[in-house]
Amino acid sequence: MNILVQGAGALGAYFGGRMLEAGVNVSFFVREKRAAQLEKEGLKLYSPEGNFERKDVMVFTSPEQVNNIDLVILAVKGYHLEQAIQQVQTIVQQTGVFVLPLLNGIEHLEKLQQAVGKEKVLGGFASIIATLDEHGHVKHTSGSGMIKFGALHLGQLEVCEKLEEINAQVKTNILREQEILKHMWNKYIFITAFSGITSATQLPVGFIASSEATFGVAKKVIFEMKNLAVKEGIAITDQEAERMAINLKKLHKDATSSMHQDMIKGLPLEVEHLQGGALRLAAKHDLAVPVIETLYGILKPYENGRPN
After folding, report:
1. What is the per-residue pLDDT across 204-241, written as a single tens digit (0 to 9) for each?
2. Backbone angles phi, psi at 299, to 5 degrees
3. Domain C-terminal end among 178, 194, 215
4. Is pLDDT of 266 > 80?
5. 47 is a domain residue
6. Do 295 and 275 meet the contact criterion of CB atoms below 8 Å apart?
7. Segment (H or E) for 44
8. How high is the pLDDT of residue 109?
9. Closest Cα partner for 241 from 189, 285, 192?
10. Cβ atoms 254, 267 nearer than 8 A
């Protein structure tokens, strides 16, 4: 199976590296600056799942260069989606490839389906706590990484079977799910609360878990998001939402969200694609989400990096 990972931030570089390590034919589509860094520094993973290094990786910087691939794994930040969609369109037109987006949120599915066709876009997401160091190497700090994926169209069953086979080979988790939309919503609910509260407090999760008042805010976000999911036709119960809240307390006390890590570095935030996306869905259903709205207001000034 030939896989193109579009985006080599911490997420794309990590899972692309793990597949390379397992002998999968993986290439990367990146911007010129990242391509130069990969050429100079190579691809390196520092991880509880095992370290890995590859000096030379196949890199593309123009969609016209791409050919002979079976799957694009779209691993860009939400604020790069509009640019990425144009590139994905060209790649799909040239190759007929399927697309597995690993973006946070849910709105990107419809945008991609409109751009390349419903039959081409799989459902999926990734879970990992990782960042890039000054050399562009991946620092993975959580215990285990995971991609979950699944078919949203009958025409995707064969490519899903091929991707599922890779799971037995890699030193991480690439798991196929039948109810992928519900799993995507579970991730969206959790990450909206986790990213919002760690970034708004500018603290790792241990401080949130130890303060009942602060934990209560995170829990309210989870239940507001659960209500949104139900409005969107996803059956998530109060008991499932309660378990998500409890899972926040089970994270390592020093764990924090990628949004908080980006805030610390002065980088752009995905606030518009997580909390902002939730507000747009809430408006569609005329549903009040006051805690999410408050977090959105707090984080919005940091959307394009540290305010000057």
Report:
1. 999 999 999 999 999 999 999 999 999 999 999 999 99
2. -90, -20
3. 178
4. yes
5. yes
6. yes
7. strand 43-46
8. 95
9. 189
10. no
The three-state secondary structure class of 29 is strand
In a domain, 82, yes or no: yes
**Which residue out of 44, 182, 187, 219 is catalytically annotated?**
187
Cα–Cα distance, 241 to 260 (Å, whole number):
23
The tens digit of pLDDT for each residue in 53-105 reads 999 999 999 999 999 999 999 999 988 999 999 999 999 999 999 999 999 99
Whether residue 27 lies inside any domain: the answer is yes
Asked if the model's pLDDT at residue 144 lies above 90, the reply is: no
Find out whether 289 and 236 touch, Cβ atoms under 8 Å: no
Domain that holds residue 250: 182-302
Mark whether 187 is an active-site residue.
Answer: yes
Q: What is the dihedral of CA 118, 83, 259, 232, to 10 degrees?
A: -30
Tokens of 194: 């986790």
Per the DSSP assignment, residues forming a β-bridge with 125 are: 148
Confidence band of 142 (pLDDT split at 50, 70, 90): confident
Q: 166 and 189, same structural domain? A: no
Note whether residue 307 is domain-resident. no
Is-contact 73 170, C-beta < 8 A? no
Number of domains in the chain: 2
Q: How many CB atoms lie within 10 A of CB 286?
A: 7
Helix (H, G, I), strand (E, B) or coil at 253: coil
CA-angle at 8, arms to 48 and 190, nearest 5°: 60
Residue 261 CA to residue 269 CA, distance in Å, equals 10
Q: Find tokens 């390592």 and name the residue.
A: 252
Does residue 70 share a domain with residue 25? yes
154 and 113, same structural domain?
Answer: yes
> Looking at the structure, do residues 43 and 144 belong to the same domain, yes or no?
yes
Q: Which of 124, 145, 178 is the last residue of a domain?
A: 178
